From TrEMBL:
PANTHER family: ANKYRIN REPEAT DOMAIN-CONTAINING PROTEIN 39 HOMOLOG-RELATED (PTHR24148), HETEROKARYON INCOMPATIBILITY DOMAIN-CONTAINING PROTEIN (PTHR24148:SF80). InterPro entries: HET (IPR010730), HetReg/Transcr_Mod (IPR052895). This is HET-domain-containing protein. Residues 99-246 form the Heterokaryon incompatibility domain. Pfam families: HET, Het-6_barrel. It comes from the Eukaryota.
């Protein structure tokens, strides 16, 4: 019935004769690749078929009565939508075409593989060639959608039209297969470990000590299987940008590595268990290359967050906030920087999608795209928490972007202190946030696209800064020599002679060490942190007290051997747990930041680009203060009037 109402235009054959790619004639048209059967030694051969993904089954109303589904008006009404897991042939719209969508990593842009497609030699990457060898059947064709072949990558206009179709392509696929690559030593064992862990750890929510691995049916801590698992999770696919929408939109998702196979649900469940039970953190401590200058990506947590986003998306008809998706997927990598946004369009809400200009034109840069998207996000609500979410996502000094626009090309150098709305319960420099109808916290200059004007007040000036803390650490083993971060903090804070009431130098010291947060980053740091910091500070400096206003708990004041808190206690369960929380909170807060002292005598953490003379401002609606600098006559100084600050 639907096909009878649809008329496909006839393609005009022009200079495309003799070429591999026929032009699309319908807005919902895609190509799928038929991979011809063959043995291992046979050449790869295929054929492209044109299909439509426009058709969607109409929802049907059913009625529930005594547990049965009836086509009669009884009791509760239900809406049921049949999943349209196929495309329709353009040549005959009544013919379904079932296909598998492929999710994989392109690798280097070197096309030294090949497939013969409709008589044409098509150059492809080696990674794709290996996948096609793996999926080819000896006795029948396999039909797949593969972006590298099914989209003419040399045709920018075609790419621009196909990108908005990605959502439909993955939703209409019969299934999606993830190709991690060819097998490697231990990869089969790693896949089996993921299968086993999804069952063995399903009821565990607490931290698991490595000494309990064997009891839980897991490999010993020194087993090579753990290293193989680390290598598997370190494969490029897991940090690829395009996988995000591919995973979120796919209904029947499988993961393959060589000949090993696992469902996405089992893989993601294991990663969730590893993250919540502390095994993911243990893997990073043992196998992460400490020489890496960029922040490590916790793959298990990334997979857990992706699974939660997938569930969230399935429950939200209108999609997710594009800005929120960008924040959560900042670690993800892509070849073209514009794809940081384009790769999320299929899963974001429609209002964000329609506001984004999709263009691969050489003159349209990623910086322009990022600025325009940020302007759209801010313009949608001129009062509220959007200014905070945007400014706390700025972690760069990119010269081609306004100072207030995040640079999504780069991974974060620091852990955001104020992006999460939970930070409102920790920081409140301008009082508790009270949203009001019609409230305007900032304005966008329609004449100057790079200018934003925010309401705020000047508070203080930065007069001293420390060196940058690149790899902060905290230990109770050899503290006098190995607690370099803590000792640098101490030497810097010792420049203060007194501290503005009601705080002391010591209370400012330990709060700044963890940025006022607990290990989760969602709550205020507990008072128990002071005891641990006080103990470590004294044994590291050899002083007692080390700083003015330093406090000592009742356990610290007890005689030795009489229940006194000592370093050895930090290896125990109770005090050791608090130490680990302090350790985690400190690393998250301090990494790639500087210490600073303001003119009024306040101690604080500042961005890596902070300089003496920068101004500290409190902006309306923002629950963290911001450091601003006057550049080319803008921001602060003479440009501050009537409580407004111009950011460019």
């Amino acid at each position: 019935m639907w096909a009878s109402t649809k008329k496909i235009p006839v393609a005009t054959r022009g200079d495309d004769k003799g070429k591999l790619y026929r032009p699309f004639v319908d807005p919902y048209e895609i190509r799928v690749l038929e991979i011809k059967p063959g043995a291992n030694s046979d050449k790869l051969q295929g054929s492209l078929h044109h299909c439509s993904v426009e058709f969607e089954s109409e929802p049907k109303d059913f009625f529930a009565f005594k547990g049965e589904i009836l086509m009669e008006p009884r009791r509760a009404r239900l809406t049921y939508k049949h999943l349209t897991m196929y495309a329709l042939s353009i040549d005959n719209l009544t013919t379904p075409v079932f296909y598998t969508a492929l999710s994989y990593t392109w690798g280097a842009q070197i096309f030294d593989g090949t497939i013969e497609c409709d008589g044409h030699q098509k150059a492809i990457t080696k990674s794709l060639e290996a996948a096609l060898w793996n999926f080819r059947k000896p006795d029948r064709s396999a039909v797949m959608w593969i972006d590298q072949i099914c989209i003419d990558q040399e045709n920018s206009m075609e790419k621009e039209k196909q990108i908005p179709m990605m959502g439909k392509i993955y939703q209409h696929a019969w299934n999606t297969v993830i190709w991690l690559g060819e097998s490697s030593p231990g990869s089969d064992s790693a896949i089996q470990l993921l299968e086993d862990a999804s069952v063995r750890l399903q009821l565990r929510m607490d931290d698991i000590d490595p000494t309990d691995f064997e009891r839980l049916g897991l490999p010993k801590p020194d087993s090579e299987i753990w290293h193989a698992l680390w290598n598997l999770l370190s494969r490029p696919w897991f940090t690829r940008l395009w996988i995000i929408q591919e995973v979120i939109l796919s209904r029947n998702l499988w993961v393959t590595c060589g000949d090993s196979l696992i469902t996405w649900d089992n893989l993601s469940n294991s990663c969730i268990h590893f993250s919540t039970c502390g095994i993911s953190q243990w893997l990073q401590q043992h196998f992460l290359d400490s020489s890496s200058t960029s922040g490590p990506v916790d793959i298990c947590k990334a997979i857990m967050d992706l699974s939660l986003t997938k569930s969230h998306h399935e429950g939200h008809e209108y999609g997710l906030s594009l800005f929120r998706l960008l924040v959560e997927t900042r670690y993800a990598q892509c070849y073209d920087s514009r794809d940081k946004i384009y790769g999320l369009l299929a899963v974001c809400r429609n209002s964000d999608r329609t506001a984004v200009r999709t263009s691969y034109a050489p003159g349209f840069t990623a910086a322009e795209l990022y600025r325009d998207m940020t302007v759209h996000h801010l313009a949608d609500n001129l009062g509220g928490l959007r200014l905070t979410s945007v400014l706390t996502s700025v972690d760069h000094d990119s010269p081609d972007l306004p100072s207030w626009a995040p640079d999504w090309r780069r991974p974060r150098e620091t852990t955001a202190l104020g992006y999460s709305t939970s930070a409102q319960s920790i920081y409140s420099p301008n009082g508790r946030f009270q949203p009001k109808n019609g409230q305007t916290d900032y304005t966008l200059n329609s004449q100057k696209k790079n200018e934003l004007q925010a309401r705020g007040i000047f508070f203080d000036t930065l007069v001293k800064t420390s060196d940058l803390f690149i790899d902060p650490d905290l230990t109770y083993l050899n503290p006098t020599t190995d607690n370099k971060t803590l000792l640098e903090f101490f030497r810097f804070a010792s420049q203060l002679q007194h501290y503005p009431a009601p705080n002391t130098i010591f209370s400012a010291f330990w709060h700044t060490l963890v940025a006022g947060k607990d290990a989760s980053g969602r709550l205020k740091c507990p008072s128990s942190f002071a005891e641990i910091v006080s103990l470590l500070l004294d044994v590291s400096t050899g002083l007692s007290p080390s700083l003015p206003g330093q406090t000592y708990s009742a356990r610290q004041r007890r005689p030795k051997g009489k229940g006194r808190l000592e370093l050895v206690n930090l290896a125990s369960r109770a005090a050791g747990k608090t130490f680990q929380e302090v350790h985690t909170a400190m690393k998250l807060a301090v990494k790639n930041r500087k210490l600073g002292i303001t003119e009024k005598g306040y101690l604080g953490l500042f961005p890596r680009h902070a300089e003496v003379g920068d101004g500290l401002y409190v902006l309306n609606g923002c629950h963290v203060p911001f450091l601003l600098r006057e550049v080319d006559g803008a921001v602060g100084g003479d440009d501050v009037s009537m409580g407004e600050i111009i950011l460019v």
